[in-house]
Structure formats: structure tokens, C-alpha cells
Write a structure and sequence with these properties.
350 residues; alpha+beta; 6-stranded mixed sheet; 4-stranded mixed sheet; 12 helices; 12 strands
């Protein structure tokens, strides 16, 4: 390799080693529609028009954000890739689309092939969970941009839905039921606030932790917070086939307060009943740690609900039963009424 480039801080040999380690992880995600292997200038994928005669492609992109600081602190890098995939495919899913393929972007100051392989292993794990193919990506070594031992991770997903099955909220109507699917924790949002609270109170990410209502005695605090974002694809693709679903929302940055309105088209309000679902202890702990208002909590965190569906009221219980059978924790968390596109809480949660 170029000695001049190495002296500038870029190790092409390390990059080649990392790329070779990615191939077996990508291969276990491939679907029959994948036309190319890793290493080309693009990823080829045949559109399955036999199943989607009026195909609409739906794309989404996102990153992991400051949750990565937990991976750095714990030197554990095999789960953040799941987060990266989840944040993209859950967004695509909210429009009724089946995720087809995914590409990742991994950037660091000095490439460590072992860390890069762990990250991509997690990306592949997420793709397997979502049923989409990892068809390519980019590994960038950029000296002087990132602190030692740090990196950034982002991704891009493409999904497909038949035009007549596109979920855009246009069929939502008064009296519809709002179904919430439980999150696995913070997912990948609210970590900037969580990090500040942890630092303000001098808490250690690397030691077991216990507080009133939340106990991580069996693992370090940071590892508990590192729990990957739940991927809802397989369950929702079944529900979409079996029930009329009028609207869906992925609860990401902005929490329930900002994400539920994204499916309401400014025509409806959702009345949320916080006591109707389990708000996990991690949120109670954060609320107490930061003396946070309800407004801050519901606009920052998912508060135990990672994905929301709007369905006709008469099928709500059947949807909940089927979602439960598919492995989700589902609850009826609210109702639709005429309005201006707001999500409003009815009653206290604590």
C-alpha cells in the first residue's frame, strides 16, 4: 500500500481486512432477489414484481446517535448495528412497506478491523431480524475527524409496498383504536439527556446498578441501556395481511408526542391513556433522576411504546391477541377523535 497514505493515517490494508470480514455476515442476510455480492460499486436487487405488481419503493435513513457512547465506554460493539437497522426498517415499515435491502456507513478516525467486524455483525443480525438483505455499505477511515476509539454508524433501507396497500393515514377515522407495541427500552432516542443525567449524578456505566423501581444488579448500567432497538417487521407484515390497519407510527426522536401526529394528517387527535400500557422502570428511573416533567418525558422517550397502529375499534382485541401470539406485548393505548393532529394524554401515568 501507499506509505504516504499510511503516514497520513489511512491504513488500506486494515480496510481490506475489515471488508473481508464483512462478507460472511452479509451473506447470511441475502434474499433470492440479491444479484451482486459485496465489493462492487453498488448492490443489485431484483424488484419482486410477482408479489408487488404496483410497486412503490419506500426509503429511510437514520443513525444510532449518542447511544454509541455506551458502546465506546463498554467496548461492546456487536449490538449497535441492530439499532442502526431498526431505526431505518421500522420507519419504512410505518408506511406498510416490506424492507428489501440495507446499506450501512461506518466512519472512524483509525480503523480497527476487529471493532468494525463486530459492528457489521450487528448490522447483519438486524437485517436477519428484519428479513432484509445487507447488499453493501461504506467503511471510511478519516484521521482527525473522530476521537480515538470512536466511530459513527448510519444506514439506509429500501422497502416495497403495493400502491393500494400504502399506509398513509388517509383511512383513519373517529373511533379507531390505537394499539401500542412495547419497546425494549430507550431504543435509540433520548440518550443525550440520559448521558447528561448519568454524568450529573456521577453514575458509572461499567458497574451494576440498582435504584428504586429499576435493578440492573446482574449487569452494568451501560449494558442495560445498550439493549438493542426492537425490530417490528416480521410481526407487522403478518398483521398487515390479516387486518385493516389505518395508520402506523414508529416512536423515535420526539417520543409519542411528536411521532403519533405524523400519521394523523392534521385531521385527527389521539387521546392516549398512559395507565393502559406498561411504562418500563427505566423511564421511571430517568424521570426521578432528572426530576423531568411529563411533557419532557413524552417528547423525549418512547415511554415503553416503540410502535403504534391505528385499527378499526371492532378489530382491536383481535389485533392485540394476534400481535401477542406473534411475540409482541400489545395494548390498546388510545382512541382517535376529530381534531387537528395532536397526541394528547388523558390522565396521569405516575
Amino acid at each position: 500500500m501507499s506509505d504516504a497514505y499510511r503516514r497520513a493515517g489511512v491504513d488500506i490494508t486494515a480496510g481490506d481486512a475489515a471488508a473481508r470480514s464483512y462478507r460472511p455476515h452479509a451473506a447470511r442476510t441475502w434474499r433470492p432477489e440479491v444479484l451482486t455480492s459485496l465489493g462492487g460499486f453498488g448492490g443489485g436487487f431484483a424488484v419482486p414484481v410477482d408479489r408487488y405488481p404496483q410497486p412503490v419503493l419506500v426509503s429511510g435513513t437514520d443513525g444510532v446517535g449518542t447511544k454509541l457512547k455506551l458502546a465506546f465506554a463498554l467496548n461492546r460493539h456487536d449490538t449497535v448495528g441492530i439499532d442502526c437497522v431498526a431505526m431505518c426498517v421500522n420507519d419504512v415499515l410505518a408506511m406498510g412497506a416490506e424492507p428489501l435491502f440495507f446499506l450501512d456507513y461506518f466512519a472512524t478516525g483509525k480503523l480497527d478491523p476487529k471493532i468494525a467486524e463486530q459492528v457489521v455483525r450487528g448490522v447483519a443480525d438486524g437485517c436477519v431480524q428484519a428479513g432484509c438483505a445487507l447488499v453493501g455499505g461504506e467503511t471510511a477511515e478519516m484521521p482527525g475527524i473522530y476521537a480515538a476509539g470512536e466511530y459513527d454508524l448510519a444506514g439506509f433501507a429500501v422497502g416495497i409496498v403495493n400502491r393500494d396497500r400504502l399506509i398513509d393515514g388517509s383511512t383513519i377515522t373517529a373511533g379507531d383504536a390505537v394499539i401500542g407495541l412495547a419497546s425494549s427500552g430507550l431504543h435509540s432516542n433520548g440518550f443525550s439527556l440520559a448521558h447528561r443525567l448519568i454524568a450529573d449524578h456521577g453514575l458509572s456505566l461499567t458497574e451494576p446498578f440498582a435504584a428504586e423501581g429499576w435493578n440492573t444488579a446482574d449487569r452494568p448500567l451501560g449494558e442495560a441501556l445498550l439493549t438493542p432497538t426492537r425490530i417490528y417487521v416480521r410481526s407487522l407484515l403478518v398483521l398487515l395481511q390479516e387486518f385493516p390497519i389505518h395508520g402506523m407510527a414508529h416512536i423515535t426522536g420526539g417520543g409519542l408526542t411528536d411521532n403519533v401526529p405524523r400519521m394523523l394528517n392534521g385531521r385527527w387527535d389521539v387521546l392516549l391513556s398512559p395507565r393502559s400500557w406498561e411504562i418500563q422502570p427505566v423511564f421511571t428511573w430517568l424521570a426521578a433522576l432528572g426530576n423531568l416533567s411529563d411533557a419532557d418525558l413524552f417528547q423525549t422517550f418512547n415511554m415503553g411504546v416503540g410502535f403504534v397502529m391505528v385499527v378499526p375499534g371492532e378489530v382491536a382485541e383481535a389485533v392485540i391477541a394476534r400481535a401477542t401470539a406473534l411475540g409482541e406485548r400489545a395494548s390498546r393505548i388510545g382512541t382517535v377523535q376529530p381534531g387537528t393532529g395532536q397526541a394528547r394524554r388523558v390522565g396521569a401515568w405516575r
